[in-house]
Design goal:
The structure holds 2 protein chains of 2 kinds.
Chain A lengths: L7 H8 L1 H34 L1 H5 L11 H24 L1 H14 L1
Helix pairs in contact in A: 1-5, 2-4, 2-5, 4-5
Chain B lengths: L8 H14 L13 H24 L3 H6 L6 H12 L2 H14 L1 H11 L1 H16 L4 H5 L5 H35 L3 H49 L4 H11 L16 H16 L2 H6 L6 H32 L23 H50 L6 H25 L6 H24 L5 H21 L1 H5 L15 H18 L3 H8 L1 H10 L10
Helix pairs in contact in B: 1-5, 1-17, 2-10, 2-15, 4-10, 4-14, 5-6, 5-14, 5-15, 6-14, 7-12, 7-14, 7-22, 9-10, 9-15, 9-16, 9-17, 10-14, 10-15, 10-16, 11-14, 12-17, 14-15, 15-16, 17-18, 17-20, 18-20
Classes of the chains: A mainly alpha, B mainly alpha.
C-alpha cells in the first residue's frame, strides 16, 4: 500500500485540469460549511458564557419555554442539514467528476 | 461513538464519579433485587446476537472480512452503527440526568457533543476512506516511516482502547449491579466473555450488526419513552417546560444557561477534546473502512448525524419531563424524601422515568438496552485494539508485511482474547476506583496524540516522521500530565486540596502543543528521508481526493 513517490498514474491525474477543478470546488464547499457550523457553534457558546440572559428570554409573554431551546435545537438540526448539503454535492456532481477523472486516468 | 463516546467528559465524570463518591455512603449503589424481566430481555438480545455471530463467522474468512467486514457495509447500515457507537449508555443516562439536574445547561452539553459530526464529514470522512485500509495507523504511516510511525500510532490506539475499555467495564459492572441485581464481578465477566466471542468469531461483521441492533433498540426505546412522557403533558413542550419550572428547585433559571459553563476556557477545551477526540477514536475511524467507497462513507455520516441529533433531542425531552415526573415522586427518592438523593444515584432519572411511565417491564427493557449498549461498545474497542496489535504491530512492523493472512488472523484472534482477559482483570481491579480521569485521558490522548498526526498527514505536505514523533510524544506527555494535575486525579484520587490545572479537559493546551511541536520539528527536519516524505505527499493527495489506488472492496 506504500506507493513510491510520483507514480505515473497519479502524475497523470495531476496533469488533468478536471482534478484541480474538483479539488478547488469541493474544498471550498467543505471549508464554507465547516465555517458555518463552527462559527455558529462558537458564537452560541460565547453567548452562553458572556450573555446568558439573551437565551433566558421567554419565547412570548405567557410562554414558559425560553428562546434558548429553539435556538439550541436549530443548531443541531441545521448542522445536520448541512451534512445533507455536503453529501448531496459530494455524492452527486463531485463524484461524477471524480469518476470521470478516474476513467480518463486508468484508460 | 461513543462514545462512545460522546459522553462529554463531564457527563461521564458524573456518571462514573457518582458511584465512586457514593461508595462510602449508605449503599447508594447497593445491589438491587434481581430483575427478571430485564435479565430475560437481555438474554433474548444475547441469543439473537450470538446467532448473528454464528452467521458472521461463516463469512469471516480473510483479514479484510475480519477488520472491515470486507468493506461490504452500506452507508445506511454504517450510519446506524456509527450512531450506535456514539449513543452509549452514558449518553442516555448521563445527558438526560444533566438536563434533569441543570436544565438548559444539560442541553448545551448535548449540542457540544453533536457539532463534531458535520466537521468529521466535511474534513475527514472521504479522506479516511480513500487512504485507510484497516487501521488509523495505515493513514498516519502512509508516506512516513513505516516502522516508527506505525508503531507509534498503534501504541496511541492501544492506549486509547485500554483506557476506554476500563471505563466501560467499570461502568458496566456498576450499572448491571444496579439494574439487574447481579454481582459486579459476574457482570464484568459476562461482558468480557461475550465481547471476546463476538469479536473472535464474528469479527467486524458481527460487531457491526450488534451495534446496529442496539442502535435500533435504543432509538425505539427512546422514542417510545418520549411518546409516553409527552402524552402526560398533552403533547405540548410548553406544558413540559411550565411544569418543570414549577417542579425544579431552581425554578425559571433552568430555562437558560447557568453556572455549569460559565468559564469559556473550560467550555472550549471540553468541546475541542470531544470534537477532535471523537474523530480520532480508533474504533470510530475503523468504521469508515467498512464501507466500499467514499460515497458510502459520506452517506454514513449523514445518516449517523441524523440519528444522533434526533436521539439527543429526545434525550433532552426525557430529561425535562423527568424533572416533573421523577422529581416530584417520592418513590424514586431515598427514604421517600423528594429533592433528596435519587435511588440508584444521579444517573438514574431516565430509568426511573421508564418505570413511572411503563412499569417494571419497560424498566427491564431499558436496562437490557443499556447493557447491550455497553456490550456493543466494548466489542468495537476490542476489535480496534486487536487490529492495532495484529495488523500494525505484528504483520507490518514485526513481520514487515511477510505474514500470511492465516498467521495475521490467528494473531488477531489471540489479541482479542488477551484484550478480553485484560479488560476483565482491569475492570475488577478498578471496581472501587473513580475512573472519571480515564475519560479525560481517553479523549485527551485521542485529541492530542492521534488527531494531530492524522490531520497533518492528510492536509500538510511538510509533515515528516521526526515531526510527527516529536509532536505525538509532546501531546502524550502534556495530556497525561495535565490530567494528573486536574481535579479528577490531583484532588479526587491524590487527595490534594485544589487542582493545579483548573480545567477538566486538557485538549485546548495539549493538542495545541502537539501541533506546534509537530510543525516546528518538521520544518527543521532537513534529512533525506524528510525530503522523500514531502515529495510523497502529492501522490497521497491525489489518492485521498479520488480514491484511485484504494483497496477495492469485496462484493457482498
Amino acid at each position: 500500500m506504500h506507493s513510491p513517490a510520483n507514480t505515473p498514474v497519479y502524475e497523470r491525474v495531476r496533469r488533468n485540469p478536471k482534478f484541480h477543478e474538483l479539488v478547488r470546488q469541493r474544498s471550498r464547499l467543505a471549508l464554507v460549511l465547516s465555517a458555518i457550523v463552527l462559527v455558529g457553534y462558537y458564537a452560541f457558546m460565547m453567548v452562553v458564557a458572556f450573555a446568558p440572559g439573551l437565551l433566558h428570554q421567554p419565547m412570548s409573554n405567557e410562554s414558559s419555554l425560553s428562546v434558548g431551546f429553539p435556538i439550541g435545537a436549530a443548531i443541531i438540526i441545521l448542522s445536520w442539514l448541512l451534512t445533507g448539503v455536503y453529501s448531496h454535492f459530494a455524492n452527486g456532481r463531485f463524484q461524477d467528476l471524480t469518476d470521470e477523472i478516474t476513467r480518463e486516468t486508468l484508460q | 461513538m461513543t462514545a462512545r463516546r460522546i459522553l462529554l467528559a463531564a457527563t461521564v465524570a458524573t456518571l462514573f464519579a457518582l458511584p465512586a463518591l457514593a461508595a462510602g455512603d449508605v449503599g447508594q449503589l447497593e445491589k438491587q433485587p434481581v430483575n427478571l424481566s430485564a435479565i430475560g430481555m437481555f438474554i433474548a438480545f444475547v441469543v439473537m446476537t450470538l446467532g448473528i455471530t454464528y452467521w458472521a463467522a461463516s463469512r469471516t474468512r480473510s483479514t479484510s472480512d475480519f477488520y472491515t467486514a470486507g468493506g461490504g457495509i452500506t452507508g445506511f447500515q454504517n450510519g446506524l452503527a456509527i450512531a450506535g457507537d456514539y449513543m452509549s449508555a452514558a449518553t442516555l443516562l448521563g445527558l438526560s440526568s444533566l438536563v434533569f439536574a441543570k436544565g438548559y445547561d444539560g442541553f448545551v452539553y448535548t449540542i457540544s457533543f453533536f457539532v463534531g459530526w458535520p466537521i468529521i464529514l466535511f474534513l475527514l470522512a472521504e479522506r479516511l476512506r480513500n487512504l485507510g485500509h484497516f487501521t488509523f495507523a495505515d493513514i498516519a504511516s502512509y508516506r512516513l516511516d513505516q516502522g516508527k510511525i506505525r508503531t507509534f500510532a498503534a501504541i496511541g490506539s492501544l492506549t486509547v482502547v485500554c483506557f476506554y475499555l476500563i471505563v466501560q467495564m467499570v461502568g458496566a459492572g456498576q450499572l448491571i449491579k444496579l439494574l439487574f441485581g447481579l454481582d459486579y464481578n459476574v457482570a464484568v465477566v459476562v461482558v468480557g466473555v461475550l465481547m471476546v466471542v463476538y469479536v473472535t468469531f464474528g469479527g467486524m461483521i458481527a460487531t457491526t450488526w450488534v451495534q446496529i441492533i442496539k442502535a435500533v433498540l435504543l432509538l425505539g426505546g427512546g422514542v417510545l419513552l418520549a411518546f409516553l412522557a409527552l402524552s402526560r403533558f398533552g403533547f405540548s413542550l410548553e406544558a413540559i417546560a411550565k411544569s418543570a419550572i414549577a417542579s425544579h428547585k431552581d425554578g425559571v433559571k433552568i430555562m437558560g444557561p447557568g453556572t455549569l459553563l460559565a468559564d469559556p476556557v473550560s467550555a472550549v477545551s471540553l468541546s475541542l477534546g470531544l470534537l477532535f477526540g471523537t474523530a480520532a477514536l480508533p474504533h470510530i475511524m475503523m468504521r469508515f473502512f467498512t464501507v466500499p467507497n467514499a460515497r458510502e462513507a459520506r452517506k454514513s455520516v449523514f445518516y449517523a448525524s441524523g440519528f444522533i441529533g434526533f436521539f439527543f433531542l429526545i434525550v433532552c425531552v426525557l430529561g425535562m419531563a423527568a424533572i416533573t415526573i421523577v422529581g416530584t415522586d417520592p418513590q424514586f427518592f431515598e427514604g421517600g424524601k423528594v429533592g433528596g438523593k435519587l435511588i440508584g444515584g444521579g444517573n438514574m432519572p431516565v430509568m426511573h422515568l421508564a418505570k413511572a411511565l411503563g412499569g417494571d417491564l419497560f424498566l427491564g427493557f431499558l436496562s437490557a438496552v443499556a447493557f447491550a449498549t455497553i456490550l456493543a461498545v466494548v466489542s468495537g474497542l476490542a476489535l480496534a485494539g486487536a487490529s492495532a496489535i495484529a495488523h500494525d504491530l505484528y504483520a507490518r512492523v514485526i513481520r514487515k508485511g511477510e505474514a500470511t493472512e492465516r498467521e495475521e488472523m490467528r494473531v488477531s484472534k489471540i489479541a482479542s482474547l488477551v484484550l478480553g482477559v485484560l479488560a476483565v482483570v482491569l475492570g475488577i481491579a478498578f471496581e472501587k476506583q473513580n475512573v472519571a480521569f480515564l475519560v479525560g485521558l481517553t479523549f485527551g490522548v485521542a485529541a492530542s496524540v492521534n488527531f494531530p498526526v492524522l490531520i497533518l498527514s492528510m492536509y500538510w505536505k511538510g509533515l515528516t516522521t521526526r515531526g510527527a514523533l516529536a509532536g505525538g510524544i509532546a501531546g502524550l506527555i502534556s495530556a497525561v500530565t495535565l490530567v494528573i494535575l486536574s481535579n479528577a486525579v490531583w484532588v479526587v484520587v491524590l487527595n490534594n486540596p485544589a487542582p493545579i490545572f483548573p480545567y477538566e479537559q486538557p485538549a485546548l493546551f495539549s493538542m495545541t502543543l502537539a501541533f506546534i511541536v509537530t510543525i516546528i520539528v518538521s520544518k527543521l527536519d532537513s534529512s533525506a528521508s524528510a525530503r522523500a516524505e514531502r515529495e510523497a505527499f502529492d501522490d497521497q493527495f491525489v489518492r485521498s481526493q479520488t480514491g484511485i489506488g484504494a483497496a477495492a472492496a469485496a462484493k457482498h
